[in-house]
Amino acid sequence: MIYYGLVITGTDTGVGKTEIACGLARAFREKGIKVGVFKPIETGCRKEKGELIPADGLRLMEASGAEIPIAQVVPYRFSLAAAPLAAARAEGRVIFFERIYQVFDDLAGEYELMIVETAGGLMVPVNENFLFADLIQPMHLPVLIVAENKLGAINQALLSIEAIRSRGLELLGVVLNQTEPGEVPADLLNPELIEEFGKVKVLCRIGYLEAKERAEQISKICRELAEKIEPQVREFGRKSVLNYF
Hints:
Elements (H helix, E strand, L loop, with lengths): L4 E6 L6 H14 L4 E4 L2 E2 L3 E3 L2 E3 L1 H10 L5 H4 L2 E2 L6 H7 L6 H12 L4 E5 L14 H5 L6 E6 L4 H14 L4 E7 L12 H9 L3 E5 L4 H34 L1
Parallel strand pairs: 1-7, 1-8, 2-7, 3-6, 8-9, 9-10
Antiparallel strand pairs: 4-5
């Protein structure tokens, strides 16, 4: 099946990928696009009345406005905040790719554009044989990387870029996001060196924002980001259709 959409991944935990995914879902929705959201695995879920509640999955649902059962948005939910394989082992469970692809196929057939969010980064283990990068490969969606703008960002971003390209996946670009207060020294050259060595665009740099202004500013930034990436997303989908037939 051919899909239109994108995968959003992060270079580390807590870099803001859910925030960017939600911002893009709202931005595309405001443009009149029917947006579906999918987070195949979420760990660190709280338990409420015997059910595991995925906080990120609920945020994605609210942002997209999609009326999807939470079991479809997040088919695998675990209580331990850890890599998917570790969280699954803690509960004596196994994550099956076939189940994830079946749910994704059903969702993608109902929506114009799909936003998929990874659990952690690309190289976290999902089951005994595969990493998250392997899970998203058959979806044939371009990937957007969210990286924390700090010392070490260059290495983390370039490793993620290499993981994406080594699997033949399309890269949309990088978002540099600052989640901690303080000034990021310009002489670190994070965006410049990521672009130079990664052969990719740093699509935007988000400075640290106080909580009272963050939601409004992120929404504005994501509207601009959606305008930048929508042509690439649609062109990639169009090429996928042509290659398929």
